[in-house]
Amino acid sequence: MYNIVILISGHLRTWEFCKQNFIDNFLDSRYNIDIYCQTYSEVESSFPTNRVDNLGDYPRVYTNSQISSLFENIPIVYLDILSENNFDPTNTIGPQAYYLEKLYNTFSSNTNKYDLIIKSRFDLILQTKLNYDYYLQNCKQNFLFMNRFYSYNIPPLLMDHLALGNPYVMQKYLLRFSESLGVTEVYHSSIDYICEKYNISRNIDTINSGLKRFLNGKVIEEW
């Protein structure tokens, strides 16, 4: 049986509204799936955006027990809950990249246990179930599979709300900010950097996704 690991890092945002979509489209009993998560007690980022103002009457902070309850029926192997105030302000690669690296490093000594590594986020929704058979077959070609995000943009944006690949590809992807120090301020330039240096090919033809967001106290979908 193939082994798959899913890494999710960041604020919970609309996770409680996306959870069922995750169960339906990410989980598959034909595979061994482990999930590693890092999140904050704060539901939305307090800085530098104004997203927290869009929560309306929704809770702004959860307790650890409340967060843990949101992962019932999810095969969690590792769950790290922090406060925004715990982030080291001297870190130069940003909190999302920092904690993705930290999640990766929790199992990096056993990376070869996994045939497929997936990076996702808590507010992501998919149109269809992930075709793991396809990704497992084709990830040997060093593809970095990424999602297309349509929203209101024509043509669709190339995004990495969801990214997946074999252990070699995902190591380069997840650790790219620490390595490509010259392009840390240009998000997609860091992906260009690893693709060129390590002969990785981006593939965006197979994943259509959207996001659920808070807007003026309501949950909306962007596709």
Notable features of this structure?
single chain; 223 residues; alpha/beta; Spore Coat Polysaccharide Biosynthesis Protein SpsA, Chain A; ten-stranded mixed beta sheet; 7 helices; 10 strands
Structure description:
The protein is of the alpha/beta class. It has one domain (3-222): Alpha-Beta Complex (Spore Coat Polysaccharide Biosynthesis Protein SpsA, Chain A), CATH 3.90.550. It has helices at residues 15-26, 64-69, 95-107, 132-138, 167-174, 176-179, 187-198, and strands spanning 3-9, 32-40, 76-82, 116-120, 124-126, 143-149, 157-165, 201-203, 208-215, 218-222. The longest helix has 13 residues, at 95-107.
Compact summary:
With about 220 residues, the chain is of the alpha/beta class. It is about 30% helix and about 30% strand.
